[in-house]
Amino acid sequence: MQEFDAIRPYSDEETGAAIHRLVNDQEFLDMVGRFKSPTLARWVPAMLRVFVRRWLLSHFGNFSRIDDLQAGLSGYVGDLVDNTTTRVTTSGLENLSKQSAHLFISNHRDIVFDPMVVNYLLFQNGFHTTRIAIGDNLLANRVFAEMMRLNKSFVVRRNMTSPREMRDAYITLSGFINHSIDTNHSIWIAQREGRAKDGLDFTDPAIIKMFYMSCKKSGLNFAEAMNRLHIVPVSIAYEYDPCDADKARELETRARTGEYIKREGEDTDQIMKGLTGFKGHVHVHFGAPIQDSPGNAKDLAAQIDREMHANYHLHASNLVAYQQRGIHPDAHASQETVSDAVVTAETWSPAEMAAAEAEMERRLDACDPAIRPYLLDMYANPVVTALEANAEKTEGSR
After folding, report:
1. How confident is the model over 67-90, as pLDDT tens digits?
2. Strands, sheet with 103-106, edge to edge from the N-terminal-most edge strand
């Protein structure tokens, strides 16, 4: 693993030292303290740090393996999930083998909660958790960097200027991903750089090409190399996005000015909001591992997208936004029409639809009028792509 030292997660041998660095870090202690007791954190932060440090050492100070640490944290992750969702459901796990590693390619809506809920469901169902791809922009915060590397996260470098630097970085990343699968460590990676703020989930073929870069000298052709990775398309569907207004504001700013410049600490704020904000019902679908990869990255990306869109679980919030947006030819279709056309659409009671309409109105009223169309689009667009995917599937079966 030495060739991957610059990007890999911590090993078991490094776990104890990393934990002790964190429990002696004032910023980390303050962050945990704000979670455990916001009032004490505000009035007696120094005293609270002492108690938090003792609590952390007593609960986690003796861990020396990553898997044991994750098992020890699983109850707290479960509490976080329970407190920020109405329920979490899953489908497709029967497609996966517990004896095999998989490359989970997922749509991306939340910085930390996406891979967390995937790993939570895998752990709860007896699977090994994944190694998680994170952008190097998240390493600017020292505490998050330590926490993420303890949580099996590895680094994807961004914003490289030199073509040679980019090539070398992608070859290393490709080598790490292939080495992980070969040594039975599953991987979670987003289908493209950054979150899909507009609700349109499409895989970047450049990421697929990256997977193959370290395999070119092995003699395997593209399809053979991709089949060995056991690629699993993953669809994560949130009923409500805690960061929806922030994403809509960014989209409106980009459309109006041509760019969006993040303020200092924005990623950290988005992580905390995504973790602690209300999400309603969250559903995660695991597709069947791809065993018949096409021979090029573009076609494989399209195959992943079809699977992802066809199995995206639509909520009442999606249908309400789709009907309110009214920019598609069939946008005023009834929920029964959508449910008949899309297998992942439920049939909601009038009371459930009324509740979704009221919640959407509340979110829109809290927004500046200029960003409201962007907020509606991020909820409506999954209906559009699901309808298109299922229409394509129906056409292909004729």
Report:
1. 999 999 999 999 999 999 999 999
2. 85-91, 280-286, 231-238, 103-106, 187-190, 131-135, 153-156
